[in-house]
Backbone:
């Protein structure tokens, strides 16, 4: 049997992998001696060959876990590819291919349609990808967002025997985003602090917003005429280790979302929370303000690459200019 687990959400895919291991222990080998985990980033073809074809002294079947086989060297991938061509179900053993990215996704292109080159030993075999995706047991783990993420938070709390208010689940999802590794850690913290019950007040008090949200608060402060508070909030981000260029890039991205919302453009890849924020903020801008802000961003970007001023002075100046652009008529 061939099982394929792939996608960017490694939290859920690794949890699924652990469930497969536990089921194998219950049904086949309680000792776990017949479970072989092969990390394609670090191991060689001989060990893979033995894992797939050598007989087991402990159980009639073996569970072979192949991690990131698409990144393995040519000789390792050739063994898997040849085996799948002759025996798509991988023989009598249970083989789980786990990938920390989406299988079958087109390669990114650079310039005029030219595929970016990668290191020789990490070139992905399209033929192998196709063979893996032919398995009837393929599960994709994409990143959660919006209502789907809120639902996951509620289900995870139920799994942990924790009560959570619906408004608390929404606020938690907004602050943490789709990083389920962080979400799990933060929920464990709230479970202990709230003694088995999580309220919205707990989330606001104990869970820091993602950097994107904190930068949006800077914009929101400027929109409401609270320039001083916005400057202090931005300075705290820089003092916490955020580089000015990263701050500027996120700020530009959020202002672009506001501009697109003003123009009636709705990108499918935009997080629902970010979309709602951008739409609400766009109602406070006029067309001339948008034009002034875009011109300002171009000028600030050029100045930041040539000036010797400190990041704090740069961000202070940026916010002051941004406030002036927003207040213009």
Residues:
């Amino acid at each position: 049997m061939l099982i394929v687990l792939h996608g960017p959400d490694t939290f859920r895919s690794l949890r699924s992998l652990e469930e497969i291991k536990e089921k194998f222990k219950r049904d086949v080998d309680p000792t776990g001696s017949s479970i072989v985990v092969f990390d394609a980033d670090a191991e060689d073809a001989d060990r893979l060959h033995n894992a797939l074809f050598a007989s087991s002294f402990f159980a009639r079947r073996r569970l072979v876990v192949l991690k990131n086989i698409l990144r393995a060297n040519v000789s390792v991938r050739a063994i898997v590819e040849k085996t799948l061509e002759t025996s798509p179900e991988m023989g009598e053993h249970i083989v789980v291919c786990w990938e920390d990215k989406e299988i079958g996704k087109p390669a990114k292109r650079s310039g005029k349609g030219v595929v970016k080159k990668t290191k020789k030993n990490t070139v992905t075999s399209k033929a192998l990808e196709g063979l893996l995706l032919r398995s009837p047991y393929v599960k994709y783990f994409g990143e959660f967002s919006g209502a789907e993420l809120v639902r996951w938070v509620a289900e995870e709390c139920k799994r942990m025997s924790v009560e959570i208010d619906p408004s608390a689940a929404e606020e938690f999802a907004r602050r943490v985003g789709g990083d389920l590794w962080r979400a799990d850690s933060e929920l464990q913290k709230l479970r202990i602090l709230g003694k088995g019950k999580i309220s919205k007040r707990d989330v606001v008090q104990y869970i820091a917003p993602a950097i994107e949200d904190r930068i949006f608060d800077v914009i929101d402060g400027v929109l409401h005429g609270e320039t001083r508070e916005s400057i202090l909030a931005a300075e705290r981000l820089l003092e916490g280790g955020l580089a000015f260029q990263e701050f500027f890039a996120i700020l530009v991205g959020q202002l672009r979302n506001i501009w697109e919302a003003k123009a009636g453009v709705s990108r499918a890849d935009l997080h629902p929370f970010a979309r709602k924020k951008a739409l609400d903020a766009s109602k406070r801008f006029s067309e001339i303000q948008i034009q002034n802000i875009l011109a300002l961003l171009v000028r600030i970007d050029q100045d930041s690459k040539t000036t010797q001023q400190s990041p704090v002075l740069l961000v202070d100046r940026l916010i002051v200019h941004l406030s002036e652009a927003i207040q213009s008529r």
